[in-house]
Amino acid sequence: MSVLGHLQAKASAAVLSGTEQTSINTSVATLSGRITSYFGENLVSQFRFGSSTRDTILPRSMDEKSDIDYMIVLKDDGRVPQTYLDRMKKFAEKYYSTSEIKQSSPSIVLELNHIKFDLVPALDSWGGSYKIPNGSGGWQDTNPNDFNGTLTQKNKDNLFLIKPTARLAKYWNAQNGNVFDSFSLEKWLIGLSYWSCTNQKDYLFTVFDNLSVAYDWAQWRKDRVTRAKQIVQNVRYYEQQGMPATAEVEVKKLIP
After folding, report:
1. What's the CATH code, domain 18-145?
2. φ and ψ at 46, to 5 degrees?
């Protein structure tokens, strides 16, 4: 197998299997029914958002922190965000008492055996946006699915290789201790120019060519990025020298 073949294979493996997707859908359906029953007339709407709706979520075998973002929009009764978070936690404790439940503002994390949910309480705002807890006791506006259209168009304009590239980059990130916030990494990479790219290797290597960290970031983060860039350089060198087998061994240090 070549470097390109290996990356294509890993990109394919980074897609949820049918079994895993079915299991998630079953859990979402159960969650939805329980939310409807628990919150009753105080419930405005509920929906999934995030990477699971963009086709960039990773299987848990590739990222143990992979989760389903789920927004629960409630009627606004003038309470502070923590009140709504407390309500989310009480709901989870009632229906999922044997599961791990914890607050990780702006969400309540509910970890089941096969998947983790980030339950985000929200209030209706204006223009189709929502208010969610900002982590400092107040509210912040968000439009949770506005990024989906941008990503879909970018993917279409780039040989349908942006989503596979995002999954590979997120896999590297997860394997290296989450150097970057996953969503921020995803948003950043769709802003790059891929004008000279023609295949999966070109796209992924462009991402690593452009990765950078702030000067005041922890040294371990800098080291992970430096190592990734060096591996990419090594792969290119080995390929230029007519050493495809060595290049493949090298790229597996980047994307195992």
Report:
1. 3.30.460.90
2. -155, 145
